[in-house]
Amino acid sequence: MLLVLLFSVSILATLIVVPFVLVRLPEEYFSSSHRPEPAFSRYAEPLRLLLICGKNLLGAALVIAGLFMLVLPGQGVIAILIGVMLLDFPGKKRMERWLIRRGPVLKFANWVRAKWHRKPLRVD
After folding, report:
1. Burial class (CB in 10 A: 0-12, 13-18, 19+), 24
2. Cα(53)–Cα(87) distance, integer angstroms
3. Cβ contacts of residue 46 below 8 Å, gap of 6+?
4. Predicted TM-score (pTM) of this structure
5. pLDDT per residue over 36-70, tens digit each?
């Protein structure tokens, strides 16, 4: 039963969540000069905290699903990358840039973006 659930989550992350996030990223997201505004900064404090908690829970779920996808069908490294992008922790930007610099990861991300007529991601 648990294996079926993990397989379902991995397929969902691969087919829906990963392309959704990759297409919406600004092309300079992985650039060292990119400084995004804080998450949900336009919302009132109680709602902002709730949204940040939800974002971190989704990120943790994607990281866990990505780890399982390393041995199950799916794009494990991409799911881990998206999960890390959603999490808040020190050293996050450096880890994101390290992950995206892996040749197949960047190639896949830019392939998905090209399918949606988006510019390729810039990594420096």
Report:
1. exposed
2. 9
3. none
4. 0.63
5. 777 788 888 899 999 999 999 989 988 888 888 88
